[in-house]
Amino acid sequence: MGPSRRALLAGGAALGLLGAAGCSRVSGSGAKDGGNLLERLRSQGTVRLGIAGEIPFGYIDENGEFTGEAPEIAKIIFKRLGVPKVQPVPTEFGSLIPGLRSQQFDVVSAGMYINPERCAQVIFSDPDYRMRDAFIVRKGNPKNLHNYEDIFKKKAKMATGTAYAEIGYAEDAGIKQSDMLILPDQLAGLLAVEQGRADVFAGTTVTVHNVVKQRNSQRAEATEPFQAYVDGKPDIGAGGFAFRPEETKLRDAFNVELHKMKKSGELLRVVRPFGFTKEEMTDLTAKELCS
């Protein structure tokens, strides 16, 4: 089973308490011929976006504002689809797919990697980015760690995030999950490296570089991006928005606007403030990634 971003299959995690107060659920019941959720959202004027509190993909900032790469894209697209307001519903990453399927929110807006296992549970927009991995290591990278094979060969202590794809990448290199330090997020990973509890924290390149830069760490640094492999083949980490399987009309309408943003260059302008570059832009499709 191929891994997928910061996230292996999100099927078995328990649902958290979700902050959707003041907004009734929009039911997908009776969804036929592509579903009627888009019409319901237009009537309601609000769409609830499931986020996982991960910088830079989707989070609440220090001013209490709802932002991130995926939410900022969603704000633009849903407004153009006639839904002017977006409401964040924070949860753990592993609870995003269960929460979507149980109608705790309407769309997953968390930069979720698209892979066949997830495609069996939800439908995805085409990806809005593709990503390589990077490490947080101690200043000067004393163990010279640049990929998962280095970690295995040098018996370095690896940390990564809960349900991160990096768990699968590391296992493919021979590292046992029982030997990994599994942490809530990238900030915890940075602290673990700074404090010497881990030699390396593995995450996506944008996530890793952002946290090191924002914390202005004096004891840790981020490595250069590198390509992760599974079974000897490059594993493409590309993320998009997830929808309930019956809501194909909403997904298709979303895709139309997303492709307009890609073609005009607007997409890159929107995500650049979150550390994304032209390198992360992609023309891959969900169909390719799901197969």
Write a concise synopsis of the structure shown.
With 291 residues, the chain is of the alpha/beta class. Helix content is 31%, strand content 21%.
Strand content: 15-25%
Number of helices: 11
Between the first and last Cα atoms, what is the distance in angstroms? 12 Å
In total, the number of strands is 15
Look at the helices and sheets and give the structural class.
alpha/beta
Strand count, sense and barrel status of the largest sheet are: 6 strands, mixed
Spans where pLDDT lies below 50 across 5 or more residues? 1-30
Keywords summarizing the entry:
about 290 residues; alpha/beta; six-stranded mixed sheet; five-stranded mixed sheet; 11 helices; globular; disordered N terminus
Topology readout:
Blueprint: H1 37-44, E1 46-51, E2 59-60, E3 66-67, H2 69-80, E4 85-90, H3 96-101, E5 107-113, H4 116-119, E6 123-124, E7 129-131, E8 133-138, H5 148-153, E9 158-161, H6 166-172, E10 181-183, H7 186-194, E11 200-204, H8 205-215, E12 220-222, E13 229-230, E14 233-234, E15 237-243, H9 248-264, H10 266-271, H11 286-290
Parallel strand pairs: 1-4, 1-5, 9-10, 9-11
Antiparallel strand pairs: 2-3, 5-15, 6-15, 7-15, 8-11, 8-12, 13-14
Question: What does this protein structure show overall?
Answer:
- By secondary structure, the protein is of the alpha/beta class.
- 31% of the residues lie in helices and 21% in strands.
- It is built from 11 helices and 15 strands.
- Strands 1, 4, 5, 6, 7 and 15 form a 6-stranded mixed sheet that branches. A 5-stranded mixed sheet has the order 10-9-11-8-12.
- The longest helix has 17 residues, at 248-264.
- It comes from Streptomyces endocoffeicus.
- Residues 46-278 form the Solute-binding protein family 3/N-terminal domain.
- Keywords: Signal.
- This is Ectoine/hydroxyectoine ABC transporter substrate-binding protein EhuB.
